[in-house]
Amino acid sequence: MTRQTESSTISSAEAAGVDRATTGGLALGQRILVSPQFLLVATIVVFSAFVTLQSPQYLSVLNWTNILRNAVFIFIVGAFSTYVLVSAGLDLSVGSIFVVGALTVANLLFAGVPIWLSIAVAVAFGVVAGLVNGVLVNYVQIPSFIVTLGMLYVARGLATFVTGGRPIAPLPEAFNVIGQGDIFGVPLLIVYAVVVGVVAHVILEYTPFGLALRAIGGNREAARVAGIDVRRISVVVYMLSGASAAFAGMLMSARLGSGQPSVGTGFELQVISAVIIGGTSMFGGIGSVTGTALGALVLSILANGLILLRIDPTLQNVMVGCIIVAAVAIDQFRRSRMFRAFRR
After folding, report:
1. Of 64, 189, 204, 233, which sits most exposed with the smallest number of CB within 10 A?
2. Are the CB atoms for 189 and 179 separated by under 8 Å?
3. Which domains does the chain have, with CATH numbers?
């Protein structure tokens, strides 16, 4: 490796150290600019304060339970989409795999298949779809954008063809409880999201697998030279992404009490938006599950707040678009500071 290449390559550990070094002594205004999570919290607080002044109902326990419940599906998928982006990949197929998971479990349950087996088969379909994505990206060397875009159309097309575009209902009450029940007043959906989030966070931040993901995203060739099985790990990442999408789709069917072919439309864009808004870099190497959780929460709060304010919900797309551009700009700013600090 040449000296020039070495100077332009920042490992995940070095990046984290440099990031702390370059932000530790900054003024408050600058720290806000370089900290997506801090900016998200500030956005949530300011927007919540404004909505509360217009509609006191916003702060009710019931309303916030709905906000968190609606964020669950985006976050569960986004947690592992974070893995994909951290490893410098992209998965546009999660929305269609979400639909496949929802309709597969509904079809099987309607046919009388046991609940546990129906769930297992639905998630297995997601794993297989992720495996196909991963193999094509890493072994056939087709860009992830093209592969996952193709899977988006294939998976949704097959799901629509098999069901004829018709809802599947009714589903067993014992299954519906999975998405509609609660424990000590806390919806089970939120419990699932917390468990998935904790597991995903621990894996990304405290295991060799997570470190390998950051290394791959930072410099794929350097990671390979360092002895990391880049292709195998990348395939596993796409499999996890597919499994999480199918699992979330299964939860959606349980929540609705039916399999709806219309669910998941535009879902992949919501997931990617949450991940990017949460501070995960489009260029790999940098990202966190906690940031994605905040990103999903922002999307849910915006949707809920605009409804309470009786504002056209389509304006949510305008606000989300502005936030995404700001998040990417912040990411570019952070990377330029980290690179300059590393060179020094």
Report:
1. 64
2. yes
3. 35-343 (1.10.3470)
